[in-house]
Write a structure and sequence with these properties.
The structure is a homodimer of 306-residue chains. The longest helix of chain A has 22 residues. The first copy, chain A, starts with a strand and ends with a strand. The first copy, chain A, is of the alpha+beta class. Chain A has two domains: 165 residues, Peroxisomal Thiolase, Chain A, domain 1; 133 residues, Peroxisomal Thiolase, Chain A, domain 1 (3-Layer(aba) Sandwich), CATH 3.40.47. Chain A is globular and about 55 Å long. In chain A, the strands form three sheets. In chain A, strands 5-4-6-7-1-8-13-12-11 form a nine-stranded mixed β-sheet, with helices on both faces. In chain A, strands 2-3 form a two-stranded antiparallel sheet. The mean pLDDT of chain A is 97. Chain A is built from nine helices and 13 strands. At the A-B interface, α4, β5, α5, β8 and β9 of A face α4, β5, α5, β9 and β10 of B.
Chain lengths: 306, 306
């Protein structure tokens, strides 16, 4: 039995920061925010909060739309690079907080902006192979814990947030074939030794070069043409990278949007944040999603409405 | 096409420590080492070394027995809770070090002593679902980075080491059905805030209570009786836990052994270290493996010789 996406919910913490109030501090102008990064606002967790708290926020929002019988949850996966602790996995902490049942399998995956697409494949193939019919896929990566507030390359870009995707047989969308890729040679250009360090130009060039190629590849893998896709949802790295990839692929603005101006680059949560809204529209029959970043790593697939 | 285990290789760093030389320091006697922990020696990485260095050591040892065409590797997974950095994933660093190809998918899994069994399921189902025919599964968890040398509860137990398992169609062993379990309520009893902290009694009681039950469960899942299993390989948490579980299940000593006296508790590497030797013996047709620890989390499965 093939599994897919039944529901998605998201969560933003309360502390809202306006990047327009930081123009002088970073010696930038309105155009930098409006046209280059596109990120007008960012949200930050409280110091006392952790990845598992963000996940719980997303779960409470999921419950508002959907009654979840926690005893039915057979798998709980968390995608994060900023876990509460390195030991144990965040999914075990959620297992306690959600009072999941003893047979529920729990593990964390360490990936960045490619993490949601990757994990859709990892969790559905794991669940199908082990005949688990209902699972929760969380993304939560509080980069504010590792960002140097004075670093222009990162401080104006990344926001905190989380998502949860209910994976089940009662799916709205099923995944098609996946494409995965890695360029480990560049890993040093996006790394956290003490604080996050990013060579923005390197990440941009990598994305602008490889992601359009990968999108064409995943179209072919799924026997679809560009104009058979109703919506392209890309990792929201910046407005500029979204505009650049859209231009390269010659896709209409309404079909490849920038969603993140109100909350910033949410790492592995950026695609589910966009998806949460878009899957409510039944016209979105074929959605192509693509995530790319840390590693360098990327992954794309098709979401097909049922 | 079902995938399985083709080869396993392991690696220990050079620095060898004798626990017998630490009896006075910790106010313990020979019996504590010989009968309770069972760990006579431990190995420690150099300060400059990281998880990826341990993985490379295991890979070089794999290459001694088996010619690997790196261009054929379509998937690289690392199980660790002590990555080189939290960003990026260790598998991306290995991607660079091994010069893997651009289509190779790479991700890390955060799990402790249950990690190898879990990851066998995760990587094979992921690879089968994405039609990837050859992959590398690494385990490497250098706990010496997080251990307080003066903490009797941890300092005498954990050693550094790594393993690599070649997953392919040319398999020697295929996995059967898996059992997974989690008791998040206990996660606080084995946690790393700054340094590793362990409530040994809690971990022991959890293992002694749940693992025999899980072994019976996984036998049933695979339609086998206890006497149809040629070998039980359990996570090597201590000699005492191995002896206790063996007694509870009333299994012969030759069929459920303690392997780790010469190198200690290697976390996710402890099962592949034992397997490396045992899969050379063609008499080991049905091997039951079970990992348990951090989370609290456990996983068991059958390995069936082909």
């Amino acid at each position: 039995m093939k599994l897919g996406i039944e529901e998605i919910a998201t969560y933003l913490p309360k502390n809202k920061i306006s990047n327009f109030e930081r123009l002088q501090e970073f010696d930038i102008n309105h155009d930098f925010v409006n046209k280059k990064t596109g990120f007008k606002y960012l949200f930050k967790i409280d110091k006392k909060d952790q990845a598992s708290d963000l996940c719980m926020g997303a779960f409470f929002n999921l419950e508002k739309n959907k009654k979840i019988n926690l005893d039915d949850i057979g798998c709980c996966v968390v995608v994060t690079q900023n876990p509460d602790y390195n030991i144990p996995n965040v999914s075990s902490i959620l297992h306690k907080k959600l009072k999941l049942n003893q047979n529920c399998s729990c593990f964390d995956i360490s990936l960045g902006c490619s993490g949601y697409v990757y994990s859709l494949s990892i969790i559905t193939s794991f669940m199908e192979s082990n005949k688990i019919s209902k699972g929760l896929l969380f993304t939560a990566d509080p980069y504010s814990k590792i960002i140097d507030k004075n670093d222009k390359n990162t401080s104006l870009l990344f926001g905190d947030g989380a998502s949860v995707t209910l994976i089940s047989k009662n799916k709205k969308y099923e995944t098609g074939k996946f494409s995965f890729g890695t360029k480990g040679e560049n890993y040093n250009d996006l790394i956290c030794k003490n604080k996050l360090s990013m060579n923005g130009r390197s990440v941009f060039n990598f994305s602008a070069k490889n992601i359009p190629v990968d999108i064409i590849k995943v179209l072919k893998l799924n026997n679809l043409k560009k104009d058979e896709i109703d919506l392209f949802i890309l990792h929201q790295g910046s407005k500029l990278i979204i505009d650049t990839i859209r231009d390269k692929l010659n896709i209409d603005k309404r079909m490849l949007k920038f969603y993140a101006s109100e909350y910033g680059n949410l790492i592995s949560s950026s695609i589910p944040f966009a998806l949460e809204k878009e899957i409510l529209n039944p016209k979105n029959k074929n959605i192509l999603i693509s995530g790319f970043g840390v590693g360098f790593s990327w992954s794309s697939t098709l979401l097909k409405r049922l």
